[in-house]
Each structure stands twice: as structure tokens, then as C-alpha cells.
Write a structure and sequence with these properties.
153 residues; mainly alpha; Rossmann fold; 3-stranded parallel sheet; 55% helix; disordered N terminus
């Protein structure tokens, strides 16, 4: 008997339950359903995670809470394409602040972004322009319409 389960195993378990058909309904009635949440990742979360992964992580196999939630299938991560630009723009400063090689941050970013569903987001409509005027940071606009992110064109 297993004492614990890796978050990655929850994906397998979810797929198994989906394949059970009629039995799936009985299993879910007895044990509840697995919850999946769509989430929009923002630059601050990603940069904080990258800093932890490069600077503070003791165990090379350890992952951040966001990585665990994504790996488990509980969180389906979305981000506007703009996130890539924002993260890559801030990596050199992060490397300098932490006195770590930029390559370490780039390597972690390369791995970190693989499960993220990047979506182009247009912010040219009147509603977006109105929202733009009400934001403290105009760079937040691509992150402010999450529904657009999980219904790509």
C-alpha cells in the first residue's frame, strides 16, 4: 500500500476514472469528483517561483505549489503570450539581484513554462481600453480578461 502519491499520479487517476464509464458515476458518488480549476498565471507568481527554484530550493526534485497543482491536473494554467515577454524581460535583473547565472533562470523558465497554455489576447476593443484606464499597471491588461484565455479563437 502506498503511503503517499505524487501529484502527477492524480492525472492518471482522473483519466482512469473517466475511462470507467458507468462505474465512474458510482466512484464519484462515493468519493466525490476531482476538481479542476482554470487559472491565469501572472508575472509576479512566475518570477517568485523561478526565484525559489533557482535560489532557495534544496531538493532538486522539489516543485513550487503552482507546479504541483498543475502537475496534478487540478489546475489548468493559462497565460497571455505577453507573460513570456514579461518574464524574459525580468530574468536578467533577477539573476543580478540574486547573484546567480542568468542561464540557471533561463533553464528553469524553459521547464516551468511547458505546461502553461499560452494564448494570444487582443486588448484593442473599447472594453479593454476602458479597463486599461482603470489599472494601476497597464501591463496587467492582458491578464484581466481570463475568460478570453480559455476560449482561444
Amino acid at each position: 500500500m502506498m503511503d503517499s502519491m505524487r501529484s502527477d499520479d492524480l492525472v492518471w487517476l482522473s483519466e482512469l476514472l473517466d475511462a470507467l464509464g458507468e462505474l465512474n458515476a458510482a466512484v464519484r458518488a462515493a468519493f466525490g469528483s476531482l476538481i479542476r480549476v482554470r487559472a491565469v498565471l501572472d508575472t509576479n507568481l512566475v518570477l517568485g517561483d523561478l526565484k525559489w527554484l533557482v535560489v532557495e530550493r534544496q531538493n532538486p526534485a522539489a516543485r513550487t505549489a503552482a507546479q504541483e497543482a498543475i502537475a496534478s491536473g487540478t489546475v489548468i494554467a493559462y497565460a497571455p503570450e505577453f507573460l513570456r515577454h514579461e518574464v524574459e524581460k525580468h530574468l536578467p535583473a533577477l539573476a543580478e539581484q540574486t547573484d546567480r547565472p542568468l542561464e540557471e533562470f533561463e533553464r528553469e523558465w524553459s521547464s516551468y513554462q511547458k505546461p502553461i497554455r499560452f494564448v494570444p489576447v487582443s486588448v484593442t476593443d473599447a472594453v479593454a481600453e476602458s479597463a486599461h484606464r482603470n489599472l494601476r499597471d497597464p501591463n496587467d491588461l492582458p491578464f484581466s480578461s481570463p475568460a478570453k484565455l480559455w476560449r482561444p479563437n
